[in-house]
Amino acid sequence: MKNKELLKRACKIAEHYRITKGDKFRLKDNDPGDTMGFKSEAKLRAKEALTLGVELLAGLQDRLYAQDKWAVLLIFQAMDAAGKDGAIKHVMSGINPQGCDVHSFKSPSAEELDHDYLWRAMKVLPNRGHIGIFNRSYYEETLVVRVHPEFLAKQKIPRELVTRDIWKQRFEDIRHFERYLSNNGIVVCKFFLHLSKKEQKRRFLERLEIPEKNWKFSAADMAERGFWHQYQDAYEDMIRHTATKQAPWYVVPADNKWFTRVVVAAAVIDTLAALKLEYPRVDDDQLKQLAAAKKQLLKK
Ligand code: ATP
Ligand code: MG
Questions:
Q1: 280 φ, ψ to 5°?
Q2: The CATH number of 3-299 is which of 3.40.50.300, 3.40.50.620, 3.40.30.10, 3.30.70.270?
Q3: Pocket of ligand 1 (CB under 6 A)
Q4: Domain locations in the chain as residue ranges
Q5: Which DSSP category does 126 fall into?
Q6: Each residue of 138-177: pLDDT tens digit?
């Protein structure tokens, strides 16, 4: 498959799952088992396409790095076992590690709790020319913190500022923050890996039954499963309020790992391709210098 054809396909897949305006968004209208009509026989072809996609991505990243102007921030959010780590690993497998940084956001430390919630994210935003990946992000502030109010209580926010409008305010602040990033050439692209409760059960059972997967099992993840509906509501509200043209959400079906990876790769390719990245051009003086250097090299 030629790059042009691949790009066209990536663009079509990305568009299908991209949310740029959230007001009418309903999670229940999105099927976690969706594969855009591709059957499981397409799995092998998907793998081939993914290999080609990863090559295409590597070329785009090389230009992003050389141009050193844009930065790309990829945010991954999902319920446990939705395949965030696998998607990140597969899609980024071909790219140059020097131009890519991954950060995982865990429960905040004492130092982090002593600051506003965007502080720890701001410190690790990607450099120009780089792709930054957030495995979880400041969006946890509208998810886990919303589902478990005890986390909010631990944050040292002045009491009078914690009102019932807090989630609306957080959404608004995040929208503004992302607009600020986009106005500065940091392109934000967000992924929600949409898993069904049934498939999460199957994956948790696999972690219990297969010895090589035992290490992945966590009792804390089991406990969070008990809050499934609260999380789904929080995710829906988050997407409704923070999907924008500059910083879209991709709602990626996550019940079939092979398809999740195809959609994520397609969206990253589409995002980079839209930047029309070019290698920096050298001016006439530099061209003369190159010609002189070549002449000198060939003499010896
Ligand atoms: P893994 O695939 O390795 O399990 P993970 O992203 O689930 O990856 P964990 O260390 O298991 O990593 O979980 C991190 C935990 O930190 C999650 O439960 C998440 O909800 C929590 N967390 C992240 N940000 C915040 C926050 N701002 N406040 C409270 N908890 C948070
Ligand atoms: Mg975990």
A1: -60, 140
A2: 3.40.50.300
A3: 80, 85, 104-108, 135-136, 140-141, 144-145, 151, 218
A4: 3-299
A5: P
A6: 999 999 999 999 999 999 999 999 999 999 999 999 999 9
